Amino acid sequence: MTVKDITHILEEFAPLTYAEDFDNVGLLVGNASNEVTGVLVTLDTLENVVDEAIAKKCNLIVSFHPIIFGGLKKITGKNYVERVVIKAIKNDIAIYSNHTALDNARHGVNTKICEVLGLSNTQILIPQKNTIKKLTTYIPNNNLEEVKNALFKAGAGDIGNYSDCSFTVEGNGTYKANSDANPVKGSIGTTHTENETMLTCVFGKNEESTIIKALLSSHPYEEVAYDVQTIENTNQNIGMGMVGELDKEVSEIEFLDHLKHKMNAKLVRHSNFLNKPVKKVAVLGGSGSFAIGSAKAAGADVFVTADLKYHQFYEAENQIVLADIGHFETEQFTKNLLVDYLTKKIPNFAIHLSESITNPINYF
């Protein structure tokens, strides 16, 4: 398998189109056409991780966090980022990152946190906007089923737990072919009227090129009339954070003990206790201060995240308990998630879980 083959599999799980605009995701180092000898999955790509990849004969590192985040104007080895890039290139090792694409994926980072904490009835905390598109096209009645089925096969019409969703309206389409045209129906220079059906269906923005390719290859016309619009409907399967429920109510202290144990946290920084039971829990791996308001609006009793600043704890406002367990701690199981996924997809391939310690924070 090539690097491109494996990254394609990863992007079926976490499409890069769902990454945040500020992020730097995808293949960061290496040649996409190189054959892969083994894959090392890590949270961060540091020099010791590249050394581990070399020792395990892995020439593709799948790293949750991107080693290259801002632009590199020089690569001289003066800092850890440049040294990692130099070592990877010297040893012909590719580096791929999916970061916020995996954060936003329905079964990504935050689903894993919910799984570890034993939360059920989970939902996306902040659905991502502008992720749903709508296709409208016009098809001769005799060709409707063929084109519609091709679109459904490509992924159009999938809404939540439903597939093959569409809406149709019959009408009359007209066109006049010029001398350079090769009309399937009608004659050059004559206005032709055809009984057509207007078909509309929705799809995820990551599927647009596939959907349009399916439309053009299955439609009988030389020139296919269609338009694609981004719609305002929120996508309940894509977005940041999740909210779910414990099997039973527990006290705030009991929940923090549970949280600390399950997430292997050295400590929990938290806002004031409210002296009420905990049932509904919101989670967001990594830096999640921007979601405090959303966690409160969702009615969560506790919001588990990381990197909260002093004044942000005030934002609890006696409505919720904010629990900061650390950036690494919230995302540590992400590499297990990716290893499990890749192992299921390519079971006879060498997929390794990195043993390197990459948490930069120590506790005394």
UniProtKB/TrEMBL annotation:
NCBIfam families: YbgI_SA1388 (TIGR00486). GO terms for cellular component: cytoplasm. The keyword RNA-binding does not apply. This is GTP cyclohydrolase 1 type 2 homolog. A divalent metal cation binds at H65, D103, H327, E331. Homohexamer. Keywords: Metal-binding. It comes from Maribacter caenipelagi. InterPro entries: DUF34/NIF3 (IPR002678), DUF34/NIF3_bac (IPR017221), DUF34/NIF3_sf (IPR036069), N-reg_PII/ATP_PRibTrfase_C (IPR015867). Pfam families: DUF34_NIF3. Belongs to the GTP cyclohydrolase I type 2/NIF3 family. Transmembrane segments: none annotated. One of its GO terms (molecular function) is metal ion binding. It comes from the Bacteria. The keyword Repeat does not apply.
